[in-house]
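Human: For the file, kindly provide a plain-text protein record giving the amino acid sequence and the backbone structure tokens, at your earliest convenience.
Assistant:
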Amino acid sequence: MCGRFVGFRSLEELKQFFPIAHANCEVTENYNVAPSQKVLAIIQQSNVNRLEKLHWGLVPFWANDTAIGNRMINARAETVAEKPSFRNAFRKRRCLILADGFFEWRGKKGSKRPIFITLPDKNPFAFAGLWETWHAKDADESIYKSCAIITTEASGSIREIHYRMPTVLKPETYEFWLDPANQNVKELNHILTIGIVTEFVSHPVSKQVNSVKNNAPDNINPV
């Protein structure tokens, strides 16, 4: 499961870590990214890697409206290739969703403590993602671009916090993952098995992150 995350790098910094050829959006920091908000993602179109902002919560092209996206913020790695809501995007429309860390909650219901999770070297990273384009069935024919984060079984460094984790890709998989010409399901599933990061570090943070209204650097400070 991944329900909140953080991204605070500048475009110049992101270009040092990710294969960005063109940026089609403004890059702004967000210390409490929540579902339905726009997130930074790299997609490949016409052989060009473009940085764009996509709504977090995938809306399939066949949906009647965008409300379905609220239930589709995550896609399970184990079933993403077969589930009707995700299978077409898995084959043809994959993306990198950029982040500096993510939150998970540990403890019993009613007294859960938010935990901030990131890489040991504190570098930014990319979630394995899917994206879709939805066209409104009205006069303005507006276009709505959305995405979902692929999740997997938690690794040893996260298992005590939560049994699931977002799938963080190793940098060497980025180009293959982005290329829509790569539609071999077996190879794509192989990346989601061996091409992922498993070592993370974590620390408790303030419960202020429970509210999306709180969006400041101290959201990730240890407490």
Notes: The chain has a mean pLDDT of 95. Helices lie at 11-17, 87-92, 174-178, 185-194. The longest strand covers residues 125-135.
